[in-house]
Model the fold of this input.
Amino acid sequence: MTSITRKLEFDAGHRIPDHRSQCKNLHGHRYVMEVTLDGDIVTVPGASSNGMVMDFSEVKSIAREHIVDKWDHAFLVFRGDTAVVEFLATLEDHKTVVLDSIPTAENLAHLAFDTLAPHYADRFEGTLRLSRVRLYETPNCWVDVVATTARL
Ligand SMILES: Nc1nc2c(c(=O)[nH]1)N=C([C@H](O)[C@H](O)COP(=O)(O)OP(=O)(O)OP(=O)(O)O)CN2
Ligand SMILES: [Zn+2]
Done:
């Protein structure tokens, strides 16, 4: 088994409504997301991905399609944060993502993991799996979500 990791970055706004300090204010981050996949190296002569677990560009395009392009330059808001949800709805064509959980780094990392895992698992006849999503909210703060079941 071999692990590969692709790093992607995006900008998003959020707030943590219950926070006792600064994070209850509307603010933003340049998030850095690392997607780690475990799999076997392809040994199919002539195949584009021969010698790779998965082409890094394909790792990127799946993460972009399902997470990064949806969250980049969006405001990520908890459905229960009604003051902000209602305010954002007044802004014409605003890119808002309404979430079922508070947009902490922990919840965003879990959401990214749960969203992406099935898309990677579909590839290479189920021999590939998402083993970790690491999400940096700032250069000093990050969260790891790891696959909980052992690989067969
Ligand atoms: N466990 C968590 N703690 C905090 C979260 C979070 O998502 N999970 N989020 C925040 C704030 O939104 C903010 O992103 C972090 O602010 P801060 O602690 O100030 O981070 P910095 O890296 O900017 O801090 P420096 O002291 O400037 O290094 C807060 N906590
Ligand atoms: Zn923040």
